[in-house]
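quick q for whoever's on today - can somebody do inverse folding on this one?? i tried earlier but teh output was garbage lol. tokens:
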């Protein structure tokens, strides 16, 4: 997870990053220690000026202990709007329907099919905005 997160924000200068993850309260605890360890490549180190704030999506937050709920809630943070942090998970119901077909494909076919389905979902959202 560390590599995926850090690689996704490299190459762009951010002053502030809002990171939403189901277990952000646990994962964020030693992220910067792991990032600065000798095992993490230098190009994956965030600049010291970048501030990262971690959140747990609203649907997952009630399952966490009380101590995690307020510090990792979107509700108490200026600048995030009224998001629930669950947007990336909404496509799973559609993608679960093609899982068996995609599992039998080669890597190129898998990527193309997943790309087509995700593009279709984005197109449906765009069309719904115009209605």
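ok took a stab at it. sequence:
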């Amino acid at each position: 997870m560390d590599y995926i997160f850090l690689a996704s924000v490299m190459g762009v200068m951010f002053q502030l990053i809002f990171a939403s993850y189901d277990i952000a309260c646990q994962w964020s605890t030693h992220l910067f220690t792991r990032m600065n360890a000798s095992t993490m490549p230098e190009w994956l180190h965030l600049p010291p000026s970048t501030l990262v704030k971690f959140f747990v999506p609203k649907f997952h937050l009630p399952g966490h202990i009380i101590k995690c709920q307020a510090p990792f809630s979107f509700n108490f943070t200026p600048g995030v709007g009224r998001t629930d942090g669950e947007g990336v998970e909404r496509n799973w119901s559609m993608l679960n329907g093609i899982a068996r077909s995609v599992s039998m494909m080669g890597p190129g076919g898998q990527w193309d099919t997943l790309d087509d389905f995700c593009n279709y979902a984005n197109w449906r959202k765009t069309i719904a905005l115009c209605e």
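fwiw The mean pLDDT is 88. also Strands lie at 16-20, 51-55. so keep that in mind when u check it
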